[in-house]
Amino acid sequence: MTGKCNADEARAELRGWVLSTAPGLAEDKLTDTTPLLEARLITSLHVPELLLLIERLRGRPIDLSALSAGDLKDLATICARFLE
Amino acid sequence: MTQISDSAAWQSIGLGWQPSGQAVLSGALLELADRLDRCFVAMAGAWGAREFRFPAFVSAAELHRLDYFRSFPHLVTFPVCLDPDEPNLERFTGEPVTGGAVALTAIEPVREVLTPAACYHIYIHEQGRVFERAQHYTTRNTCFRRERYYAPLRRQWGFTMREIVCVGTLDEVKQFLATCRGQVEALLAATGVPVAWTAATDPFFQPARSAQYLAQRVNPTKTEAVFGDDLAIASVNLHQDHFGHTFDLSRDGAPSFSGCVAFGIERWLHAIVATHGFNPARWPSLARAAAPADQVASP
After folding, report:
1. What count of other Cβ atoms lies within 10 Å of the Cβ of residue B290?
2. B192 and B273 share a domain?
C-alpha cells in the first residue's frame, strides 16, 4: 500500500501489525485502549518499524523531534495523534 | 548562587581539577562525598541490597551484547596496551610522546572498556541466574564518559557513580523505583538541594536512528532529579527486561525485569555547595540520612 489510506484501513493494518509482533496475544485481548509498550506487546526494538508503518499509512513523515510521551500508548492514541 | 568559577574558594574546600576532565577531592569536599555515599548505602541497606565492588574495566564483548558501541560510541573510553612484541616496544620507546600525546605503535586487541555505568557489572556478573524473588544490589564505581567539554564536578570524563539495582518482576521493579524516588526525595530534603523531576532520555548516538531512544521518547523510562537548569544529580531508570533478556536473568521462566537508581556523587557535591556556599559548617550533616534505615517491606 502506498499513500494515505482511510482511517478504518489504517486501524486494521495497525492492529494486524501489533498482533504479528505479539504472536501469543489473542485477538480479543487487543482493544483500542490496550497499552502497547507498557504491556510489552511491542518493545523498544519495534518502535522504528511502527513509526515507519504509521508514516506509510498517513502518507507523510512523522516529525521525530515532536514525539512525546504517550504518543504510541495504544491504537486509539496512535489513530487520534497521527492518522485522523 | 555560588559560581564554579570561584576557583580559590573551591580549592579551599578541597577541589582540584585536571584539564583532562577529572577532579581531585580532598578535605571537606572529600568528607562530604563520603557522607553522601554513606547515605546512598543506607538507602540500599533498607532494601537488603548486596554490595559489590567491581573492577574498573568491563568486558567489551559483554557490552556489545547490549549494542552499547552502536548506541554510545561517542562516550566510550578504552584501555589500550602496546603489542608486547619486543621490536614494537623498541619502536615505541624511540619517541614515546610527541606534542604532548603518546605516540602509540602497534597495540594489542582491545577487549575491555573503562566502566561507563556502574550497574552494567551487576547484570554481567549475575548472568544465567534463575531468581525466586526480587534481588537488590548496590555498587559504586568510577565511570568514564568522553564528552565534548568538561566542567568541574558537573561534567567529568571520570566520575563516581553509586547505583542501587532491583532485579525482579515488573511490578516489583516498579514498586522499587517508586519507593526509591521517595527515599531520594527525603534525602534531597535533608540536603536542602532543590530539584525538578523530569522525564529524560539517554544520550544515544544519532538518536533519530536509535530504537531505544525513540522508545524512551514515547514511553519514558528514565526520570532525572535536575538541579538548576540542567544538572541531573540522580536518575530513576526502568530497564524493562532489556538486561534480563540479554544476560539470561530469569524469574518464573521469563526474563527478569530490572531498574536502578543512580547518583552522580560529584554532581551532588556541586549542588550542595552551590546551595549552601563554601563554608562547610553550613553544609548538611546528613547524619540521620546516613544511619542504617529500617528495611523496606518487600511485596
Report:
1. 20
2. yes
Test A72 with B216 for CB contact under 8 angstroms.
Answer: no
- Residues from chain A that touch B216, judged by Cβ atoms under 8 A, are 44
- Residue ranges for chain B with pLDDT beneath 70: 1-5, 297-299
CATH of domain A7-83: 1.10.1200.10
How are beta strands B50-52 and B135-144 bridged, if at all? parallel
Task: Give the torsion through C-alpha atoms of B127, B133, B139, B145, to 10 deg.
Answer: 60
B214, B241, B242 member nearest A48 (Cβ):
B214
Handedness of CA B21, B123, A44, B209 (dihedral sign): positive
**C-alpha to C-alpha distance for A65 and B217, rounded to whole angstroms:** 9
Claim to verify: residue B135 and residue B243 sit in the same structural domain: yes
Task: Kindly identify which residue of chain B lies nearest to residue A39, measuring between CA atoms.
Answer: B170
pLDDT 10s digits, A17-36 = 999 998 788 899 999 999 99
Delimit the domains of chain A by residue range: 7-83
Nearest partner of A46 among B251, B255, B219, judged by Cα: B219
Give this prediction's pTM.
0.90
pLDDT at B209: 84
State which residue of chain A sits closest to B222, comparing Cα positions.
A69
Of all residues in chain B, the one with the smallest CA distance to A69 is B218
Cell 514511553 belongs to which residue? B219
Mark whether B12 and B131 lie in a shared domain.
Answer: yes
Residue B139 structural domain: 7-77+116-290
Q: How many CB pairs under 8 A join A and B?
A: 46
At residue B169, φ and ψ (nearest 5 deg) are: -80, 170
